[in-house]
Amino acid sequence: MSLAGQRLDPSRYTIIPRTLSFLLRGHQVLLLRLGADRGEWAGRLNGIGGHIEAGEDVLASARREIREEAGLTPGDLRLCGVVLIDVGPPGIGLFVFVGTAQGDPPQQSGPEGQAAWVDLDRLPEEATVEDLPELLPRALEGYAGKTCFFAHYRYDPTGRLRILFSP
Q1: What residue numbers bound the domain in which 20 lies?
Q2: Residue 114 CB neighbours (<10 A)
């Protein structure tokens, strides 16, 4: 079978696929304090994630990123959101997962940053990446309700992030 039926047109919108995962342990969430080389995101908290490798499905990618960045094996990892981020072309297709885990990540920082458990009640006091305060509650609601949210991100002309969640 050829690809002709797919109507591939590189002049149309394309995306770079990525995963982002949040692991729960009691009333804590596992987050990554991003490394110094991450520009304006340096030192801020984000979920665990990265690029989906060629030949890898989104769930396998999420599990691999968690093992690489946090040294943990997730349990009950479920897709809870899909976000299209308009920064292109190409844009970013972000697959958001939530699961559980036990244990602690290694004490030493990895190339992406340092993974650590953060109490959900203390999260508003922490420096996070700009979308985390809106994205994480949606992901946790999806996990609890076994549903999936959909969203679109874009940046306005002033550079401010605009988030639109589907009803």
Answers
A1: 14-165
A2: 18
